[in-house]
Amino acid sequence: MVGHTVNPGTRDYHYYRCRHVYAGKGRKKCMGRYVPADALEQGIWSELLSVLSKPELVLRELHDAAHAQVDPAELARLEAGIASLQKREEKLVSLYSYEGVDGDIVRRELEGLRRERTTLTDEFELLTCRAAALEPAVDEATLRTACDAIAQRLDGAGPDDQVRVLEALQISALVTREEVTVEAMLPIAPSDPLLDGKISAPLHEHGHDDVDEGVIPDRAEDAGARGR
Question: φ, ψ for residue 215 (rounded to 5)?
């Protein structure tokens, strides 16, 4: 998105709009509307403060991101298959009590079912272990300290500092007609600029471990910018 200022004669209006609105001939143009700059910037800033005051949100995002890389449908399929095989085994075992049943045949059937169940169980355990391995090991106390330190930097920050903090956190915003989705990179290493009070350099030069996002309800268009 790009920022613009218009002045219809009474006051300045600051807003953002998708850069593809101004696409050249032959290129697909975005039909997105104007987004009031003050509402968008304040919403993002408020969302940052809200997330940083609740480190458990960051931990939840880490957990969800790790488990999202494992197909839940595949886990459900394996669980259902294991349960089905267990029921079939139980039915075969019950046949032993009936006269005239060939015990050798029942045993062979049981062995086959158990091999199938073992295979599915191994696959299920492999997937669940993979999800656990993908989940980053983050010390909760360290994360809370990092959030508190950054929140202090945000509290009362002036416009210039706000810009530097937003750049340091690598803020990105996806704006639709209904909402604004904000994503950021949260540093937790002690040497990160936001933790030691130095924010002159972008944090992409340092290590980052935590990703979080928030959703901000979209505001109405600024009447002064509408249609301009």
Answer: -115, 130
Residues sharing a CB contact under 8 Å with residue 149, sequence separation 6 or more, in sequence order: 194, 195
Rounded to 5 degrees, what are φ and ψ at 173? -130, 130
Cβ neighbours around 121 below 10 Å, total:
15
Please write the tens of the pLDDT for every residue from 146-173.
777 777 777 777 878 777 777 777 877 7
Q: How would you classify residue 97: left for phi > 0, otherwise alpha for psi between -120 and 50, otherwise beta?
A: alpha
String of DSSP letters for 11-40: S-EEEEE-GGGG--TTSPPP----EEHHHH
Instruction: Give the start-to-end residue ranges of the domains of the chain.
Output: 66-134
Digit-coded pLDDT (tens) for 64-83: 766 666 778 888 899 999 99
Q: What is the rounded distance in angstroms from the CA atom of residue 185 to the CA atom of residue 189?
A: 12
CA 197 to chain CA centroid, nearest Å: 27
pTM, two decimals, is 0.45
List the end-to-end C-alpha distance of the chain, in Å, as a whole number.
16
Which helix or strand (DSSP H or E) is residue 68 part of? helix 55-68
User: To which residue do tokens 């391995």 refer?
Assistant: 133
Structural Rg of the chain based on CA atoms? 28
The neighbour count for residue 134, using CB atoms within 10 Å, is 14
β-partners of residue 182 are 173, 214
User: HSE of 77 in the Cβ direction (CA atoms, 13 Å)?
Assistant: 7
Could you give the CA distance from residue 49 to residue 184 in angstroms, rounded to a whole number?
12
